[in-house]
User: Which sequence fits this backbone?
């Protein structure tokens, strides 16, 4: 199950993106819960308005578990990991050819 929410979210005390001197909004990425046993949520702000984002999740062997195209107005993606095995998974969020964020999360059942 993949769920895209295109409505703007407000996070308590979190930076929603800071305008830079050029007037662009800085990017951010928040991934939770970690560890997860079911649904992993990715909250983000893409800095590019003219290109779609792409989230790729891979296991530690380099096998792609999921590749998700993210529209320019999306800011939340929920990934169903219930069918995945226990272990560490790596993710990379890009916008055009620019890396927005990388990291890892654990699936523990």
Assistant:
């Amino acid at each position: 199950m993949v769920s895209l929410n295109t409505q703007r979210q407000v996070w308590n005390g979190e930076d929603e993106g800071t305008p830079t001197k050029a007037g662009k909004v800085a990017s951010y990425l928040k991934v939770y819960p970690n560890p997860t046993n079911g649904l992993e949520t990715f909250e983000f702000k893409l800095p590019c308005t003219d290109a779609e984002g792409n989230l790729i999740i891979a296991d530690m062997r380099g096998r792609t578990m999921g590749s998700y195209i993210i529209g320019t107005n999306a800011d939340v993606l929920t990934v169903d990991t219930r069918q995945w095995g226990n272990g560490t998974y790596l993710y990379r969020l890009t916008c055009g050819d620019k890396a927005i964020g990388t990291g890892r999360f654990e699936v523990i059942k």
The chain has no helices and eight strands. The chain has one domain: 2-8+18-107. Confidence is low (pLDDT under 50) at residues 1-25.
